[in-house]
Amino acid sequence: MSQTTTNYGLILEDDSSTKFKDWREAINGASNSNFIKVDEILAEKGDKSVSIECTLIASSWVGVDAPFTQELAVTDLGAAQNGNISVAHSATFEQREMARDAKLCVTGQSDGKLIISADGEMPDIDIPVVITLLG
After folding, report:
1. In what order do the strands lie in the sheet with 127-133?
2. Are residues 86 and 117 located together in one domain of the fold?
3. Do 73 and 39 belong to one domain?
4. Which domain holds residue 17?
5. Which of 44, 51, 67, 92 is the most buried (most CB within 10 A)?
6. What is the model's pTM?
7. What pLDDT score does 1 carry?
8. Is 57 in the same domain as 28?
9. Model confidence pLDDT, tens digit, residues 6-59
10. Rounded-to-integer distance, Cα 9 and Cα 30, Å
């Protein structure tokens, strides 16, 4: 008797009386087989990450003393979405040095925005960043 896996409904077969042809079609058939299901699952997951370039603007930092904060608008960001942020490859030496001195980190997230904090120096130049959103 066929059973299915909990998460994706993949076919499990432990009945030794099942004919080979029936088993093969369940695993590799053209309709509702394990291979079709795996292919559909991978299609949904495989290409979900997206990179977005933004800039932390020097004049947009808020605060008198550290930590300074800046709200960064991020199109398509979900409140609980995973991802990462880093200084962009295009950043100059001066911008990378400023980012290190600022001790930047993400301290808040909601739909469409990140809160970036500078726990060190307040940046006095713009810093280009890249945000990678994971699906």
Report:
1. 50-56, 127-133, 83-87
2. yes
3. no
4. 2-45
5. 67
6. 0.68
7. 54
8. no
9. 887 777 777 777 677 776 777 776 777 777 778 887 777 666 788 999 999 999
10. 16
